[in-house]
Write a structure and sequence with these properties.
The protein is 67% helix and 17% strand. It is α+β, with helices and mostly antiparallel strands. α4 (144-162) packs across α6 (174-192) and α8 runs antiparallel to α9 (334-358).
Length: 359
Amino acid sequence: MDAQQQRAAATRPQGGGGGGGRDSTANFTVLLSFIAIFALVLIPSSSILKNSFDILHQVPEGHVGVYWQGGALLNTITNPGFHLKMPLITHFEPIQVTLQTDLVRDIPCGTKGGVMINFAKIEVVNRLKKDYVYETLLNYGVDYDNTWIYDKIHHEINQFCSAHSLQQVYIDMFDQIDEKMKDALQADCTRYAPGIEIISVRVTKPSIPDSIRRNFQHMEEERTKVLIAIEKQMVAEKEAETQKKIAISEAQKNAHVSKIQMEQKLMEKESARRQEEIANAMYMAREQSLADASFYRTMKEAEANKLMLTPEYLELKFIEAIANNSKIFFGNKVPNMVFDQRLLGNFFQDMVRKENMES
C-alpha cells in the first residue's frame, strides 16, 4: 500500500501540471476573442477611436485635415484626398473651410420695457479661412463656433433687446437686426478670430406674449384701415387731379381752336382789306387815267381854241353876233360902238400874240 501510494503521489503532480497549462491557453484564447469582439463593436461606434486606430484616412472635399499628436495640435494641414498617419499616436479631424450655416435655436431676451420674447431660430452663414485654420483651432479648439457664433449670438441679441422697446424689436427695427448682428459678430471675429468670416445672419420673427401679439394685430388692423383710407383719399385726389387736367386740356384745346379761328378771321379780314386796297388802287389809277385824258383833251381843246382866236375869227364872230342880234340901234353913236368892238378885237389879238411869244 505504501508503494502504491508513493507511485500515485509521484504521478499526480505531473498530471496536475498538464491540466493547468491547458487551462491557461484556453483562458488566453477567450481573452483575445473578447478583446477582438470588443474592438469590433466599440471602434466603429466611436469616431475618435476609429480615427486613432486608422492608418489610411480620407479628407472630404471642402475640408482640410488637422492632426493632434499626444494632445498637441500639429501645424500640418492636409488637402482633400487620402493620407497616412500613425495609428493610436496621431489623431485626425476634418475641418470645413467652405460656407456653413450654424443654426442657433431658442434665444430668450428681455426688451427695454421688460417684456420677455424668444427668437426661435437664427441662422449664421460663416466660413473659416483656410490660412487661419491652425491659428483658430490653436486658440479656440475644434468647436470654435460655439464661442464666436452660438454664444456670441445669444449675447448680441440680449444686448440689442435690452436697448430697444418691444415696438422697435418686433416691428420698427426688425429689418435691421440681421445687419446689426452680422456687423457685431464680424467686428469681434475680426479682432479676436480673424479667420472666421461672417457672410450673413438670418433672424426669424420672435415670439411674444399672446396678449401683446393681439394688441399688435389690432394695431396693424387699424393701421391697415388708415392706409386704406389714405389710399382711397389719394385715389380720389388723383381722380380729381385727372379731371382737372382733362378740363384744363379741354379749355386749352378750345382756346387753341378759338385762337386759330380768330387768326383765320383776321386773315380773312386782312385779305379783304388787301382786296379793297387793290380795288381802290385800281379805281384811283383808272380815275387818274380818265382825269389825265380829260385834262389832255381840255388842254388840246384850249390850244386849239388859242389857235382859232385870230383877229379875223373874232371879227367874224362879232359880225355874226351882231347879225344875229334882233335889236337895231339908231343914232350918231352907232359907228363909235362898232369902232369900239374893233378895238376889243385888236386887244384880244395882242393878247394872243404875247402869249405865243412867251411860250
